[in-house]
Design a protein that fits this description.
Blueprint: E1 3-9, E2 18-24, H1 33-46, E3 69-70, E4 73-74, E5 96-100, E6 109-111, E7 114-115, H2 118-125, H3 147-157, H4 164-168, H5 175-186, H6 195-208, H7 219-223, H8 231-245
Parallel strand pairs: 1-5
Antiparallel strand pairs: 1-2, 3-4, 3-5, 6-7
Bound molecules: iron/sulfur cluster (SF4) and FE2/S2 (inorganic) cluster.
FE2/S2 (inorganic) cluster is lined by residues 56-59, 61-66, 82-84, 160.
């Protein structure tokens, strides 16, 4: 398969940046999107040009590092997959692919397609943990947890912290990310000790980092590679109100 790419190139966070046009040829339909970028980078290196910087690690939808906008969609056009899980057979032969980094003030571009997502780390430091001593792996039935709560906590725990929800939102809201982290712990007995401080701390940090408000467009849910439900945002709001009145 052959593709024309318009890729955002930006030397560093102070550079203005611009789109540069490239072509890639003889790409296997089974290649992943990142493998296609690897081929382009190898061509660029052979020509003595600077390869395109992009984030990646696990390449199997687990680490959350690989997100880019493809034709204006966070992680590309397909639902429920991260950029590294996209296969080139999902695009049309000869298609023009516009590739750019997440666009959100709290995620400044470091270089090309790589953005600084440490704002998420600081939100996690503000409450995304438990202080109870968990010790070794407990027996499966030692702490009984109702099945619906366990299922919902597990769904929330699927969040990989990729930032697509922020990139997809016109307000650059981080509510889906924060709600997944708060929900996961609010639903479990181990998360009760800091339940109120957690939600207040994480929302306070989210606001301080410059993320916008949620205006219920559901763009975050539509673009989330783990299909995290906006129902978690409703729980986040309830948790916040409870923390404020108790
Ligand atoms: S909620 Fe979804 S889109 Fe947002 S950071 Fe988590 S996995 Fe990524
Ligand atoms: S490289 Fe880890 S989720 Fe894509």
């Amino acid at each position: 398969m052959n593709f024309t790419l318009r890729v955002w190139r930006q030397k560093d966070r102070h550079d203005k940046g611009q789109f540069i046009r490239y072509t890639v040829q003889d790409i296997s339909p089974h290649a992943s999107f990142l493998e296609m970028l690897d081929v382009l980078n190898s061509d660029l290196a052979k020509q003595g040009e600077e390869p395109i910087a992009f984030d990646h690690d696990c390449r199997e939808g687990i680490c959350g590092s690989c997100g880019v906008m493809i034709n204006g969609r966070a992680h590309g056009p397909h639902r429920g997959v991260a950029t590294c899980e996209l296969r080139m057979r999902g695009f049309k032969d000869g298609e023009l692919l516009v590739v750019e980094p997440w666009r959100a003030r709290p995620f400044p571009v470091i270089k090309d397609l790589v953005v600084d997502r440490t704002a998420f780390d600081r939100i996690m430091e503000a409450g995304g943990f438990v202080s109870v001593k968990t010790g070794g792996a407990p027996d499966g039935n030692a702490i009984p947890i109702p099945k619906p709560a366990a299922d919902e906590a597990m769904d929330a725990a699927a969040c990989i912290g990729c930032g697509a929800c922020v990139a997809a939102c016109k307000n650059a809201s981080a509510m889906l990310f924060v709600s997944a982290k708060v929900s996961q712990l609010a639903l479990l007995p181990q998360g009760q000790a800091e339940r109120h401080e957690r939600v207040e701390g994480m929302i306070g940090r989210m606001d301080a980092e410059g993320f916008g408000a949620c205006t219920n467009t559901y763009a975050c849910e539509a673009e989330c590679p783990k299909e995290i439900s906006v129902a978690h945002i409703a729980r986040l709001n309830r948790e916040y109100i409870m923390a404020k009145v108790t």
